Amino acid sequence: MCVDESVIKFKGRSSIKQYNPMKPIERGYKFSVLCDMSGLKLEGSLAWGTIRINREGLPKGMASDTSLKRGDFGHKTSNTGVTFFKWKDNKIVTLASNFYGTETVQLKRQLRDGTTSHINTPQIVEDYNKFMGGVNYHD
């Protein structure tokens, strides 16, 4: 099961219309979406996903953006058992999980000149890309 918020584009007049300039669809109706995906088990179990880097409660001392090269990552675990990952592909990606460890896998990426390279990534990134499903494609 996967729960996320989504927005249906609407530019007309309505008192329940919401405006968020940080989203691709800035104006519209916001609602929750429930999808059948691996990753979130209800009532006290497993969850993972992306998180904003300025979110309150993130552990201090994560690797700085400038120190990370493509394929590098850092991680910290909070006192509540949630592990936060900061990984660099083309841009910095920040993820959180309450069950992933620091296992790494290799992803194949195509470079601008057409060649392919293998970069290291935490297992959470590969699984997030695999199971992201339709909810985040709408955002």
TrEMBL record:
Residues 1-39, 40-139 form the PiggyBac transposable element-derived protein domain. This is PiggyBac transposable element-derived protein domain-containing protein. The lineage of its organism: Eukaryota, Metazoa, Ecdysozoa, Arthropoda, Hexapoda. It comes from Exocentrus adspersus. Transmembrane segments: none annotated. PANTHER family: PIGGYBAC TRANSPOSABLE ELEMENT-DERIVED PROTEIN 4.
